[in-house]
Specification:
By secondary structure, this protein is an alpha+beta fold. It contains eight helices and 20 strands. The structure holds adenosine-5'-triphosphate and magnesium ion.
Length: 365
């Protein structure tokens, strides 16, 4: 399969006029890697669907360029773009059989009958739908319907695959299964794929690259690991999973580490970033980046407020300082602590990240 690069540069799509104006996509610039899967992730209304529709040609942006395989396609109508879109709603034709649904695009393109048969058979096999040719969509499960929708797009041999929340109508278990299937297929075909979702776990599990969007703009680009471990902004940190933001002041700076003063103690944190004494920082600590210590001097004292046993881990809400709460995950717990217990919390080495909070605010001592 040809690996086709896709680029959007400074793309802006505006809806409405005057006070009603919404900049749904605002100066969107990104080069999508050829042959890879990139997700657009972000909260409802952040512009994911609009960005995808600009790529597919359903919307004309007011500004910017959309390039597919090095060619500007802004003025090219959707049916003449080398893209194939899978929608959340599947959009299958209810009165047609599986075969007819998958064959539809080829028929429109006046592909000879024999070739249609061959291509549809291949498409159905790829999506494990062989034998279901004569069923109608209402005789299929949600997952099977979704696979028909994908097969219908693939038989047209698009060079770029676009998905808009393709799994949100499925139940949780099937969603996890189908996202694996989509990822396998994408890797096998090596097709440039852009996948819209608001589900951060889904995005992390299938992406080569993630774009986190907010208010029509890209907030951060990175691998799933980077986005999770090194969120560039509080928005990203907050959006991607459960996060503690611990405010502190740099007290001492060592080689690859710093002592951060917070909650009446100095917490040692591994960090490569050069830090100055007196700088105010926010430690971004995932619940699994904190653990109980046995009352060591450099640990934060707190009181257990709530406990949730989640099978593979126990999640604690711990009151610290003056009304703050820290979330801590204790993996594979041997025993559970109780509400009201006093605990000491330390940072798991190499697992937290420092966010800058304003400029340098050096205290001379
Ligand atoms: N056709 C339209 N006319 C007017 N405003 C629109 C239109 N389509 C989208 N918008 C607005 O543009 C913004 C972005 O919408 P978009 O559908 O791209 O968001 P989204 O990230 O896909 O959200 P969701 O996760 O809910 O699907 C929203 O404020 C929305 O109200
Ligand atoms: Mg959407």
């Amino acid at each position: 399969m040809k690996k086709v690069p896709v680029a959007m540069s400074n793309v802006t799509k505006v809806f409405g006029k005057g006070p009603e104006e919404v900049r749904a996509v605002d100066g969107f610039t990104h080069q999508f890697e050829a042959g890879r899967l990139t997700t657009l992730l972000g909260p409802s209304g952040c512009g994911k669907t609009t960005a995808l529709r600009c790529l597919a040609g359903f919307y004309q942006p007011e500004e910017g360029n959309i390039m597919i395989d090095g060619k500007r396609v802004n003025e090219v109508p959707p049916n003449n773009r080398p893209t194939g879109t899978v929608f959340q709603s599947y959009a299958l034709f209810p009165h047609m059989t599986v075969f007819q649904n998958v064959a539809y695009g080829l028929k429109i393109a006046k592909v000879p009958e024999l070739e249609i048969k061959k291509k549809v058979a291949e498409g159905l096999e790829l999506l494990q739908l062989t034998g279901m040719e004569d069923r109608s969509p209402d005789q299929l499960s949600g997952g099977q319907q979704q696979r028909v929708a994908i097969a219908r797009v693939l038989v047209n041999e698009p060079e770029v695959l676009l998905f808009d929340e393709p799994l949100s109508n499925l139940d949780a278990k099937l969603r996890v299964y189908m996202r694996g299937e989509i990822r396998n297929l994408q890797e096998r075909l090596g097709i440039t794929t852009i996948y819209v979702t608001h589900d951060q776990e889904e995005a992390m599990s299938i992406s080569d690259t993630m774009l986190v969007m907010n208010h029509g703009r890209i907030e951060q680009v990175g691998s799933p690991m980077d986005i999770y471990r090194k969120p560039a902004t509080e928005f990203v940190a907050e959006f991607i999973g459960m996060t503690n933001f611990l405010q502190g002041v740099v007290k001492d700076v060592g080689h690859g580490s710093a002592g951060i003063y917070m909650y009446d103690t100095v917490v040692e944190v591994q960090t490569d970033a050069v830090r100055r004494i007196g700088e105010e920082v926010t430690i971004v600590a995932r619940p699994e980046a904190l653990r109980f210590s046995n009352g060591k001097a450099s640990s934060i004292r707190g009181t257990i407020q709530h406990l949730f046993f989640l099978g593979s881990l126990a999640r604690y809400e711990i009151a610290v300082g003056d009304g703050d709460t820290i979330i801590l995950d204790d993996p594979n717990p041997e025993k559970l602590l109780s509400r009201g217990n006093t605990v000491h919390i330390e940072v798991v080495p190499h697992s937290v990240y420092l966010l800058d909070r304003g400029g340098f605010n050096t205290i001379s001592d």
